[in-house]
Automatic annotation (TrEMBL), chains A, B:
InterPro entries: Aminotrans_V_dom, PyrdxlP-dep_Trfase, PyrdxlP-dep_Trfase_major, PyrdxlP-dep_Trfase_small, TusA-like, TusA-like_sf
Keywords: Aminotransferase, Transferase
Keyword Transferase appears in the UniProt entry: yes
Domain of life: Bacteria
Protein name as it appears in the record: Aminotransferase class V-fold PLP-dependent enzyme
Keyword Cytoplasm appears in the UniProt entry: no
The reaction(s) this protein catalyses: (sulfur carrier)-H + L-cysteine = (sulfur carrier)-SH + L-alanine
Necessary cofactors: pyridoxal 5'-phosphate
Family to which this protein belongs: Belongs to the class-V pyridoxal-phosphate-dependent aminotransferase family. NifS/IscS subfamily.
């Protein structure tokens, strides 16, 4: 039963399990105590810190353990931004950061740097945002910049070293969210802070790490506590910390070989899915990407139904479609990239994935997509766009209908209006804002803008072929 | 090798170990995901929440898991106090709360309710503090009250139900820190919030719990996150949560039998230590107390040295003496009680402690105390207080000397001054503020007050017998 969602949480690495078991017996006492059980716990904690720092590429006294990657990000953003309060309140982030970064930055004055259609920021745009150009609050100095090493939905790698360079020139510290990439190698470039999460690399839940380079100003914002240099409160989760450090070392040892194998499998998915399934958009950078993640979206598909079908077929994947989100909004990553969100599937392969599993995925996917499309009444992909139909400009009322229905109705109507005619799609579904322009791009039709309507939003589509 | 510091951290309960192992295999996936691994994780999380809520005495939807007891306290205090910002900023706490409570409350306007010599608050004093009588900021309304169910250093139980009554009358929510007592039973009385920590009851590190009763206003103060009802950010530490819930259930099943056995052993320590060791003060409530904790202090003893000797003899205990603290201040609990802090030893017995272990502790303790006293040059306990010596009032300069030296020098000088004479002890050691008055009380001499001196503090002692 292939589990293809390792970017959410990876199964426990055998080395992590072994280290955890040993540390349960040796490392349950308080490492701050002077008696033998405490001293033993302290030794384990120190050794884990050294191993993790070595993997991160920092000094042991620059690294603390936190209860999760989310906490590492929250503590890192608040501590670094608050310490530079005098410089200003602006926190510059890429528009495709993990929600933990966005929510932490949003407590300050957040400026989002846009990404291109592959999901990548440019160092020049970042430099502009540091200066206060663009969308952020005017006149506000920049306290902190945040950039992921690679994206959690698309695998696209960011130009961290370049952005670190422009941050250094601007005198702004850079926090790197390395949650998705740390298993594969250290993050290059002159970052100031780095956050990561152990359960993403096969370590146990309950462990994040935060590195703060010496010389980077840092002011903890939470109630005083003596643990972890006063930067992360609460009794250390020592057995899990030991397991996290051991498994990080283990996955690093396997990284080169695994990366080559997984990269080839992801390339196969990237190539074959559009060949096997009509009306699919594979998103993200095809080259500058993590080895194990690939994301694609299927027109006229309800993401939740496709996930259920894949689950029944034995494949566990996730989705950035609005119907799979509790807020009924599509993934902010797909939105920032301006790509299709309907029928979205993220595949993230665990270490040791067999080619046969990927082949089986490719074998079942087309049938499952067809099933979901047929059930929802999608237009026939084989049908020609057709001769000009009757009538001129038309209004298509899809109010109250959820993704992918508005796009399906649009696709059905378009062949029935003359070339040159405009269809005004009324929709109150957040996904439409992303998916109607994306559909136009895929179909070679003109997207002529949107405006607020009496109810919902009016999206204008002009038939051009 | 007896480990007698279970109040710091308890060894992992066998049930916790077993549950943790099972959940490592079944519960590593994201419980928010829809595929089978996620659904399995969700079932485990729901079951753990039901078991924990049952043990706490609340509804499952009133309980969240946090990464530690400290985090449960921090989140509980900030969420409850911030939600009542309009009522005022005062947070009323007992003076003997755990440091996590004091540090969280200190971010608001903290008022400490004093305790008696047994370490117990009175409901009347609490009621006064809620109204704003006493030491707190004048004119400030009360947002929240915090009271531990039992003290972590002395085991003294607090009158939680009574205090909950006065809180309800005042319309102020009460947060109970139940970290030390939850293993023994639910907390009675109409509390509003309750916090606890799994590694205190034999669960794994990395799990705290916070219950917030329905109807209690609560405003999370941290960056938005969907986990745990939006009240505790970060990926759930599911295997540890499962183990925590299972072990809470297990220790509760054993609680009645264990309590009787440990209570008898602690009674033996309370009775025998003062018989076996001269100049010892056993502190805390002898009756209204937790079964497993006892604290005593030894005159003329350096706490750190005694801990080392006990460690070498195979006993792991902790201490509230200033010399065992990184800040060189004695425990705030002992200070609030006004009892001796030098040579302080806390014994907290784990489940299943054998009587023979306690007997061996009682057998080695007197010799170790004698050794430490001899090494430091303590006055001979057998020597008579002596006839009147030469000279009248005297100044004893102990500036720069650390606990227990100032008290030792005082004890040596006193027999050499006439009855009625005053000794002015100059000291810059924080422990002296507590230990000189405590020594006077133990020796039946008059403590005549203190005042600031050119360097340090002058403590006035009058010989009365």
């Amino acid at each position: 039963m292939p589990y293809f969602d390792t970017a959410s949480s990876a199964p426990l690495h055998p080395v992590a399990r072994q280290a955890l078991l040993a540390a349960l017996d040796e490392g349950w006492a308080d490492p701050a105590r002077l008696y033998r059980e405490g001293r033993r716990a302290r030794l384990l904690l120190d050794a884990a810190r050294e191993a993790a720092a070595d993997a991160v590429g920092c000094r042991p006294d620059e690294l603390i353990f936190t209860p999760s990657g989310t906490r590492a990000v929250h503590l890192g953003v608040s501590g670094a931004a608050a310490a530079r309060r005098r410089a200003g309140r602006r926190v510059v982030v890429s528009a495709v950061e993990h929600s933990s970064v966005l929510h932490a930055a949003d407590r300050f004055a957040m400026t989002e740097v846009p990404v291109d259609r592959l999901g990548r920021v440019s160092a020049a745009a970042f430099a502009g945002a540091l200066r206060g150009d663009g969308s952020g609050p005017a006149g506000e100095g920049t306290a902190l910049a945040c950039l992921q090493s690679a994206n959690h939905e698309t695998g696209t790698e960011q130009p961290v070293a370049e952005v670190a360079g422009v941050c250094r020139e601007a005198g702004v510290p850079l926090l790197v969210d390395a949650a998705q990439s740390l298993a594969w190698g250290p993050v290059d470039g002159g970052w100031s802070l780095l956050a990561a999460s152990a359960h993403k690399w096969g370590g146990p839940a309950g462990v994040g790490l935060l590195a703060v380079r010496k010389g980077v100003r840092f002011a903890p914002q939470e109630p005083a506590d003596e643990r972890e240099s006063g930067r992360s409160a609460g009794f250390e989760n020592l057995p899990a910390i030991v397991a996290a450090a051991a498994s990080l070392r283990a996955v690093r040892a396997e990284a080169a070989g695994e990366a080559a194998g997984l990269r080839a499998l992801v390339d196969r998915i990237r190539t074959r899915v559009p060949e096997l399934v009509p009306d699919v958009e594979v998103v993200g950078d095809p080259v500058r990407r993590l080895p194990h993640i690939v994301t694609f979206s299927c027109l006229y598909v309800d993401g939740e139904s496709l996930l259920h079908e894949l689950d029944r077929a034995g494949f566990s994947v996730s989705s950035g479609s609005s119907c799979t989100s509790s807020t009924l909004t599509p993934s902010h990553v797909l939105r920032a990239m301006g790509v299709l969100s309907e029928g979205n599937v993220r595949v993230s392969l665990p270490l040791g994935t067999a080619a046969a599993e990927v082949d089986r995925f490719l074998a079942v996917l087309p049938g499952l997509v067809s099933t979901v499309r047929a059930r929802i009444g999608a237009p026939d992909a084989e049908a020609p766009a057709g001769a000009a139909g009757s009538g001129g400009s038309r209004v298509l009322d899809t109010l109250g209908r959820r993704c992918p229905i508005p796009v399906i109705e649009l696709a059905k109507l378009l062949p029935r209006v003359p070339v040159g005619a405009t269809i005004t799609v009324l929709s109150d579904d957040e996904a439409a804002r992303l998916d109607i322009p994306a559909w136009c791009e895929m179909r070679g039709q003109e997207y002529a803008g949107e405006h607020e309507a009496e109810r919902g939003t009016a999206y204008l589509v002009r038939r051009v072929s």
